[in-house]
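Deliverable D4.2, example record:
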Amino acid sequence: MRTEEVLNSAGEPEAAPDPVAMLTRLFREHHLELVRMALLIVGDKPTAEDVVQDVFTAMHDRLDRLHEHHAMLPYARTAVINRCRTVLRRRKLASRLHQHHEPPVWSAESAAMLGEDCREVFEALRSLPRRRREVLVLRYYLNLSDAEIAEVMGVSGGTVKSTMSRALTALAKKLEDS
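Output generated by the structure prediction step:
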């Protein structure tokens, strides 16, 4: 018997979970959460939706390598963070080439839907450096622990703690100033 086989109540090996079903379940249960996380990092909903869709497409293309169903959500979170970083790097490069990107987040409709306080917090969050913004989103939006944040971001636990401290200090200062 292989070590990764799971035994049912009768002591017989259970069939391996269907990767397509696992990915479908992950999509149904966490798609909106991942889009919202990406929105808080990249700043606009269409880009956030594209990022998450790209992640699920890539995961579907690699189903033969995704066997551990318990690791699919952390993998998806990490992939979304990494793709958000790519988007932000491309925007930074475009701004250097004088092609400024202004995300279409604050349409009249969306501005009316959000309260002024929420908009101010979102604007202050958007102005933080990438790593600080990511740590705050992962902690206060997804309620991840320091260890989970470290895993998603690929950094140490100490880096998470120091980045969190600096991020909260910077965010509080920005909100005091506004």
